[in-house]
Amino acid sequence: MNLSLIPQLKHAQSDNFFLLSGPCAIEGEDMAMRIAEHIVTVTDKLKIPYVFKGSFKKANRSRVDSFTGIGDEKALKILRKVSETFEVPTITDIHEISDAAMAAAYVDVLQIPAFLVRQTDLVVAAAETGKVVNLKKGQFMSPESMQHAVNKVRESNNDQVWITDRGTMFGYQDMIVDFRGVPTMKQYAPVVLDVTHSLQQPNQASGVTGGRPALIGTMARAGIAAGVDGIFMETHFDPKNAKSDGANMLDLSLLEKVLTDLTAIRTTVNSL
């Protein structure tokens, strides 16, 4: 995995895990800048290669009145400002073929949501931008089946592709991470563990997704021990009032302790 190919990615040679982190959705400029500044400070201290994450819009929502965004171009411009201000790369989700070229003009990594990772035209459109493509493993897919999604990117003349595991559906309202899938998927591409969405509790009767954020540290530590290349972690300074996925986000004030623990475990794993 050649992290140095990603523009502005610092600490690429640190041999630490890389981090995709930020709010679930861009709610406004001030909140995005506040979250980014804090994460950049911590990751620079710990020498963690860092990519700021924020969705410019949220298309996969439980209810029609759920928050979907502040406007595509407005949110994308905020992502660009974060990148320019803090000199970090950025990642955002895309949901439609037309999103690929639009978002690629503003960010460095395009993410395919788990529900959409089998959509060939969407994956190919992302790959053809030349940006890094982060494929979320479908909650309904086996680790082995992700090789086909990876191949769609590579057969589109783009070798910059990652797989992110965000758990597999267990019953109606729980996600389970099967860590046996980590070495399997690492045969195909670098593997990231999404520790916040893996702790979601979807399909609630209220139409608002639940979560178990108290287990974020546990899930992340297990992922590093299992050998993942990266960690995906959504965070917010006020999760209870976040406009999307607040129930499973990490409180920003807890981030440094979690990342410090993960760095120590990564150092141990590297020594084995």
From TrEMBL:
Q: In which pathway does it act?
A: Carbohydrate biosynthesis; 3-deoxy-D-manno-octulosonate biosynthesis; 3-deoxy-D-manno-octulosonate from D-ribulose 5-phosphate: step 2/3; Bacterial outer membrane biogenesis; lipopolysaccharide biosynthesis
The protein's Enzyme Commission number: 2.5.1.55
Q: What is one Pfam family matched by this protein?
A: DAHP_synth_1
Q: Recall the GO molecular function terms of this protein's record.
A: 3-deoxy-8-phosphooctulonate synthase activity
Q: Which GO terms describe its cellular component?
A: cytoplasm
Q: Which keywords label this protein? A: Cytoplasm, Transferase
Which reactions fall under this protein's catalytic activity?
D-arabinose 5-phosphate + phosphoenolpyruvate + H2O = 3-deoxy-alpha-D-manno-2-octulosonate-8-phosphate + phosphate
Q: InterPro entries from the entry? A: Aldolase_TIM, DAHP1/KDSA, KDO8P_synthase
One biological process term from GO is: lipopolysaccharide biosynthetic process
The UniProt similarity line reads: Belongs to the KdsA family.
Q: What is this protein called?
A: 3-deoxy-8-phosphooctulonate synthase
